[in-house]
Amino acid sequence: MHGKVVLITGGAKRVGAAISRRLHAAGANLMLHYRASAGEARLLQVELNHARAGSVALIQADILDVGKLPSLVEQTLSTFGRLDALVNNASSFFPTQLGDITPAAWEDLMGTNLRAPLFLSQAAAPALRRTQGAIVNITDIHAERPLKGYVVYTAAKAGLAGLTRSLARELAPEVRVNAVAPGPILWPEDNQFDELSRQRIVSHTPLKREGSPDDIARAVHFLLVDASYVTGETIAVDGGRHMTI
Q1: Catalytic: 153?
Q2: How far apart are CA 53 and CA 80, in angstroms?
Q3: Largest CA distance in the chain
Q4: pLDDT grade, residue 199 (50/70/90)?
Q5: Sign of the C-alpha dihedral, residues 71, 72, 78, 82?
Q6: What is the pTM of this model?
Q7: End-to-end CA distance of the chain
Q8: Per the residue annotation, which of 34, 150, 153, 229 is the catalytic one?
Q9: Which residues contact 25 (CB under 8 A, 6 or more apart)?
Q10: What's the pLDDT score for residue 203?
């Protein structure tokens, strides 16, 4: 990826940071988007720029504000002069029990997981066409196998899986569009899953262990670098979990 430029949403921590480190190690220059994780974003920028000066820039935005999304692409082009890949990683995740779903929850979950990837991909499409680039969306294995109690999140990720296939047709042949669907990689920071729930999920995962953020990062790297004849596909990185749900 030497000389290539990647825009990563939610790239400052957790899975996003792992994707950022792996693509940067492969030679890419990065525009890292963050919303509230300013401290983590700056630390990661310093770390990566220490390894290769001037290779990482930051941009702050609330991706629920659709009007701000084109500026992510514009600033990337202004800073680096090109755009070769977009990784739609930023996401919100929380339960929505049927009967208690609010418009605010719908707006948040649909906005981050589906609407923002669509409008950001639309804004990035002209630049990606010029570079024969690629898009990778981070979906979820529950896009195909619903997670009980997470009605809106499941619907949003299912929409993102469909959007991946649709954009693959719309942007071909210049731009490839694929997705990575994580399974049990990192647990939510707000303890939505207690220890018993975590143990139950891992015990029903064929590989009998949690994955790591770098497992997702390696799949993203593969789709961007080594999968030149792959588009419209979703790779499940879940230890086989989707087979047992």
Answers
A1: yes
A2: 13
A3: 52
A4: confident
A5: negative
A6: 0.94
A7: 36
A8: 153
A9: none
A10: 83
pLDDT at 186: 72
Residue-wise pLDDT tens digits, 141-165: 999 999 899 999 999 999 999 999 9
**Burial of 45 (C-beta count, 10 Å sphere; 0-12/13-18/19+):** buried
HEC assignment per residue over the chain: CCCCEEEECCCCCHHHHHHHHHHHHCCCEEEEEECCCHHHHHHHHHHHHHHCCCCEEEEECCCCCHHHHHHHHHHHHHHHCCCCEEEECCCCCCCECCCCCCHHHHHHHHHHHHHHHHHHHHHHHHHHHHHCCEEEEECCHHHCCCCCCEHHHHHHHHHHHHHHHHHHHHHCCCCEEEEEEECCCCCCCCCCCCHHHHHHHHHCCCCCCCCCHHHHHHHHHHHHHCCCCCCCCEEEECCCHHHCC
pLDDT given for residue 27 in this prediction: 98
- The C-alpha atoms of residue 98 and residue 102 are separated, in whole angstroms, by 10
Residue 62 to residue 112: CA distance in whole angstroms: 9
Cis peptide bond N-terminal to 173, omega within 30: yes
pLDDT, average across residues 208-218: 91
CB neighbourhood size of 121 (10 A): 23
Residues 112 and 93 sit within 8 Å (Cβ to Cβ): no
Q: Which residue has the tokens 């090109």?
A: 82
Rounded to whole angstroms, the Cα distance separating 182 from 46 reads 28
φ, ψ of residue 180 to 5 degrees: the values are -120, 130
